[in-house]
């Protein structure tokens, strides 16, 4: 249990409370995991999430990536072949590990996992 709970990073409310492993703000509803060992604002902590590709390269918004293995796509008889280039990716906090939002030519908009792509 954390003795001195930090104020909400979104609205600066001081009436935050602990719920399981999260700290919750009652005013705006924001939930976050508190920083261990004190509050370190300057290190880029919770706001900066690093997304790496299948070989460990750091990915950024706007990068071009290549799919490293064939992917099945629901509703498509062929799927996405290994070696398909995907341009202008966007990093998101997706569901089930899908952290890349992109548009693939011939398929349209979809989300990919960073573990199945490598930086081109």
Automatic annotation (TrEMBL):
Superkingdom of origin? Bacteria
Looking up SUPFAM superfamilies in the UniProt record yields: Prokaryotic SH3-related domain, Zinc beta-ribbon
Can you give the residue ranges of the Protein YjdM C-terminal domain? 51-120
Q: Which Gene3D superfamilies match?
A: 2.20.25.10, SH3 Domains
Protein YjdM N-terminal domain sequence ranges: 5-32
Pfam families, per this entry? YjdM, Zn_Ribbon_YjdM
The entry assigns this protein to a family as follows: Belongs to the YjdM family.
**What PANTHER family does this protein map onto?**
PROTEIN YJDM (PTHR30305:SF3), PROTEIN YJDM-RELATED (PTHR30305)
Q: Which NCBIfam families match?
A: phnA (TIGR00686)
Write down what this protein is called. Answer: Alkylphosphonate utilization protein
